[in-house]
Amino acid sequence: MALKFKYLTFLLVLPLLLQGFFGISPKPIIPVTFSSTDTSTLQSQVSLKDFSTALKTDTGTNLQGIFASGVLALRVVQQPSGQPGYVSSVDGVVTQFSMAKPYSVIGLLAHNFSSGSEFFNLKLGDKISLIYGDGNIKELQITKVDKYQALSPTSPYSDFKNLATGERLSAEQIFYKYYTGNPHLTLQTCIAQGDQGSWGRLFIVAQVIP
């Protein structure tokens, strides 16, 4: 069943409406990166040095990879031009969210049947390394791990209920909460429950270590 979903890109995030620059309120939505099957988490055994060397491109400062010792070592790919809903289904890969870039936020999306499954082994205080094509490495630390129930699981316009606090937020509020503000990293995947692969959403926020 997993193969069926690898070629479907639907109910994902749509473009942040450009009309917002012309006085019309933008209406961002939240990706649905769902799963059809359970997958076991694959822990990275590669070292940061070896991983960063493998990703060095000498082609500038584009983000190439994300690393957390003993947890994950994932390559970063970009969304194709004009396809802000695209999320790669390839295991070992995360997709950079183009809509977050104007806000100086790095958003990395992954399906929970592939690389997103590894996000669940991250926890508060863990160190994350961002690896750039020129060899530069930026160190961050996880400061927030939030889980939400999607009240309309398959809708990108769903409201969300915070599982810890009960707070209810719209898709637009979620977008501005996790993809705007001070520069930071946000990882996102879906939470499966029962036979509903997109039952909820996981957001992990990491800040640059001073």
List strands and helices in order, with pairings:
Elements: H1 2-6, H2 48-55, E1 63-68, E2 72-78, E3 93-96, E4 106-109, E5 127-132, E6 137-150, E7 160-162, E8 168-169, H3 171-179, E9 185-193, E10 196-208
Parallel strand pairs: 2-3, 4-9
Antiparallel strand pairs: 1-2, 1-5, 3-4, 5-6, 6-7, 6-10, 7-8, 9-10
Structure characterization notes:
With 210 residues, this protein is mainly beta. It has a single domain, classed as Sortase, Chain: A. 10% of the residues lie in helices and 32% in strands. The protein is built from 3 helices and 10 strands, in the order ααββββββββαββ. It has helices at residues 2-6, 48-55, 171-179; strands at 63-68, 72-78, 93-96, 106-109, 127-132, 137-150, 160-162, 168-169, 185-193, 196-208. It has an 8-stranded mixed barrel with strand order 1-2-3-4-9-10-6-5. β1 (63-68) and β2 form a beta hairpin. 37% of the residues are buried. Mean pLDDT is 83; it is low at 1-26 and 35-43.
Largest sheet: 8 strands, mixed, barrel
CATH class: Mainly Beta
Q: Structural class per helix/strand content?
A: mainly beta
**How is the largest sheet built, in terms of strand order?**
1-2-3-4-9-10-6-5
- Mean pLDDT, to the nearest integer, reads 83
Strand coverage percent: 25-35%
Q: Examine the secondary-structure arrangement and name the CATH architecture.
A: Beta Barrel
What order do the helices and strands follow? HHEEEEEEEEHEE
The CATH superfamily is identified as Sortase
Number of individual domains: 1
Rg over CA atoms, rounded to whole Å, is 16 Å
What coarse outline follows from CA principal-axis ratios? globular
Using the coordinates shown, work out and report the CATH topology: Sortase, Chain: A
DSSP summary: helix tally: 3
Number of strands: 10
Secondary structure: helix percent: 10-25%
